[in-house]
Amino acid sequence: MAPKYKVTYFNGMALGEPIRFILSHAGKEFEDIRIDLEQWSTLKKDVPFGKIPTLEVDGKTAHQSVSICRFLGREFGLAGENNWEGLQIDAVVDTIQDLRIAFADFMYAENKTVKAQKKEKLINETLPFYLSRLDEQVEINGGYFVNNKLSWADLYFAAITEYLKGGLEDDFISQYPNLKVLAEKVWNLPRIKAWREKRPKTQL
Amino acid sequence: MAPKYKVTYFNGMALGEPIRFILSHAGKEFEDIRIDLEQWSTLKKDVPFGKIPTLEVDGKTAHQSVSICRFLGREFGLAGENNWEGLQIDAVVDTIQDLRIAFADFMYAENKTVKAQKKEKLINETLPFYLSRLDEQVEINGGYFVNNKLSWADLYFAAITEYLKGGLEDDFISQYPNLKVLAEKVWNLPRIKAWREKRPKTQL
């Protein structure tokens, strides 16, 4: 029997969307549970390490979004053909994570002045640093991050890019031609396209 | 022919030590390159994404410390028996990473007042939050993080614990009996013990 998947997250893209992208691209049905803050205050204590997203597979629960994505990538043949290729894919995702953490540090800063300073640094230093290097990597890898073919790193990147665009309210990716083409290529994969059309619309 | 490994990092534990732990425990020889800040200013531009540690395997270079550790864990049979077990191991390491990032946010804060505030929050909230849950996980998994046996998550944890202890100048782990026993068990694995005796001594 096919495994039953259930994704639990807030009603947003952020850390949940890469999981939904990978499941969708693999053509897997999944329960897309979206909780509000009131439900979260009750649920929080029952969730491993008090954090979402979680993935349930046949009733067993896992946490940590990137670990979940890698698990699904391996399930669906998107995690490289050997251990070294798997490492290259993982390193791309960890690099995108470094960028995402810098983004979150800006996005969720409480003090307005501090937030503005963080945004300036993000736009002028952090994004160009990472994105120029990632762009070059895609250029030399045939339009994908690793070894001239689609992997879960590409799906992860395209999902996180939508979230960052929503947070920055800026189409920052358009300055990086190879990344832009890659993101659009992923967004237009038939099952990803169908998912993006039917999913609840959110800014983040 | 056995692969040739070369680890390049600063003269410290931090993000390099988990790699050195895993290679040591697997009984692999490796070149342990430790560079100073002057060398780093020259080397930085030639390194993928301008960051270390890197691992060279037979002349091919990889970056991202956790991705490298996972690769080595898989090479040496320390990454779980199946995909789900691999996910559990990855989720532990990502949780330790969340803690390590909160630690780094304190440790490398430039403003003294801010640093003191961050330290207080780290000691009173962040460390207890993660460590109490990790301690419980070790308790219910037979003295290891996952499935009653040693994995690269245990080695990762023991190496990072030494780094955090050095930074906090506090034996914080002693308040968590299961974690304390696990860390000491790893430190006393014969090849880890031998490595810790022969490695250059550093606080971080």
Automatic annotation (TrEMBL), chains A, B:
Reaction equations catalysed: RX + glutathione = an S-substituted glutathione + a halide anion + H(+)
UniProt xrefs under Pfam families: GST_C_3, GST_N
Domain GST N-terminal residues, every copy: 3-80
Domain GST C-terminal residues, every copy: 82-204
Entry EC no(s): 2.5.1.18
Keywords assigned by UniProt, alphabetized: Transferase
InterPro entries: Glutathione-S-Trfase_C-like (IPR010987), Glutathione-S-Trfase_C_sf (IPR036282), Glutathione_S-Trfase (IPR040079), Glutathione_S-Trfase_N (IPR004045), GST_C (IPR004046), GST_superfamily (IPR050213), Thioredoxin-like_sf (IPR036249)
Molecular functions per Gene Ontology: glutathione peroxidase activity; glutathione transferase activity
Gene Ontology biological process terms from the UniProt entry: glutathione metabolic process
SUPFAM superfamilies the UniProt entry points to: GST C-terminal domain-like, Thioredoxin-like
Homology family: Belongs to the GST superfamily. Sigma family.
Protein name: glutathione transferase
Native organism taxonomy: Eukaryota, Metazoa, Ecdysozoa, Arthropoda, Hexapoda
